[in-house]
Amino acid sequence: MRSGDADAARAGLTPGARDPIQLSERWLGHVADSVRAIVRPRSMVWRCISDRTALVTGAARRIGRAFSLGLADAGVNVVVHTFQSTAEGQALCAELETRGVKAWPLAADLADASAISTVVARARDLAGPLDVLINNASLFEADTIEGLCYEAVERHLRINAWAPLVLSREFAHQTERGHIINLLDTKLDSGDPGHVSYLLSKHLLAALTRMLALECAPRISVNAVAPGLILPPPGQDMDYLERLSRSVPLQRVGSPQDVVQAALFLLRSEFVTGQVIHVDGGAHLGAPRYS
Ligand SMILES: NC(=O)c1ccc[n+]([C@@H]2O[C@H](COP(=O)([O-])OP(=O)(O)OC[C@H]3O[C@@H](n4cnc5c(N)ncnc54)[C@H](OP(=O)(O)O)[C@@H]3O)[C@@H](O)[C@H]2O)c1
């Protein structure tokens, strides 16, 4: 159990602290976590996720960055995996540590099969046992059925499906109890003829989510979040997403924080596995396809 001072520090009750309501809620949460940790064994306190350690892939930018910040605000230490954004990853680690958690940068190319197989061991060497794996890193290149080539399919499969599978396997070997969250895409339901390789790889990841949920039970839960319109793809801006959002039932664009909140719900759940939470304003229900 942490001391009161350490709790206050983790809660961000230091000069420069931001939202006082959020911070006092967080401090109360840490106190409640500490009390529960005394009266209940570790395996029963998953709802309190502070003091856990997460590996987040593609963690330095965009939705991955939001995961890192959201986990840190929940008291979770983060191994910040990056590929090309190494400087951003290091800066993010420094920022996470100002929020009272530990953070470690780790660079690896998830297209490289031998690199993938060492990522969990390297993360564990840095941070100790991992409790959470978030398979967020992704390749998103445009192609069509007509122009499809095997190399593009293979590239997407490696990064978007094979890497999550190997990381999940290695993660499961080194933890007694944990959570895996895979990032899917609402377009698995609605379709996207302009990103065929990407979508194929995410279909495989969806199948793996179900298979791994069975394989890893009862020690580890495996779930997925399927975002919809959250951040614009390269070369587009928020106006582009706003235009597309007219065809979404809730008629708006989501935020990275919406995705993070769904993941935090899954991490706090002790009886949910093999699930997909769509964070997409209802797009998966069959609204007109994005053009
Ligand atoms: N953005 C959305 O609205 C949206 C919608 C539906 C689904 N999603 C899913 O949500 C997740 C996050 O979305 P996002 O838009 O934030 O993702 P993103 O920007 O497309 O990619 C996330 C990170 O993946 C990493 N990555 C790419 N190639 C890699 C490689 N060879 N090895 C290791 N890492 C590699 C990159 O890390 P570096 O920067 O370090 O190179 C990148 O920052 C993805 O799985 C995506 O499919 C997002």
Supply Rg: 19 Å
CATH class group of the largest domain: Alpha Beta
The portion of residues forming beta strands comes to 5-15%
Low-pLDDT segments, ≥5 res? 1-18, 36-45
**Count of helical stretches:** 10
Instruction: Supply the helix-strand structural class.
Output: alpha/beta
Query: How does the major sheet shape up?
Result: 7 strands, parallel
CATH superfamily name of the largest domain?
Answer: NAD(P)-binding Rossmann-like Domain
Distance between the termini: 53 Å
In the CATH classification, which architecture of the largest domain applies? 3-Layer(aba) Sandwich
Run of helices and strands: HHEHEHEHEHEHHEHHE
Structure description:
There is one protein chain. With 291 residues, this protein is of the alpha/beta class. The chain has two domains: 39 residues, no CATH class; 239 residues, Rossmann fold, CATH 3.40.50.720. Helix content is 47%, strand content 13%. Strands 3-2-1-4-5-6-7 form a seven-stranded parallel beta sheet, with helices on both faces. Strand 4, helix 6 and strand 5 form a beta-alpha-beta unit. Helix 3 packs across helix 10. The site of NADP nicotinamide-adenine-dinucleotide phosphate (NAP) has 25 residues, from helix 3.
Task: Produce a short descriptive summary.
The protein is an alpha/beta fold and 291 residues long. It has helices spanning 4-10, 20-39, 62-73, 86-98, 113-127, 150-174, 187-190, 196-216, 238-244, 256-268, and strands at residues 53-56, 77-82, 103-107, 132-135, 178-183, 220-227, 276-279. The protein has 2 domains: 1-39, no CATH class; 45-283, Rossmann fold (3-Layer(aba) Sandwich), CATH 3.40.50.
